[in-house]
Amino acid sequence: xxxxxxxxxxxxxxxxxxxxxxxxxxxxxxxxxxxxxxxxxxxx
Length: 44
Description:
The chain has 44 residues and is mainly α.
């Protein structure tokens, strides 16, 4: 069994993936809110 040493794993890929996910979710939320506001104004 290998010895695990806390803090030595390279997590750059995981951090980039999480950052991309957060950006995508933020943009998606903004678009959804904008569409809902547009629908409320137009009366669709």
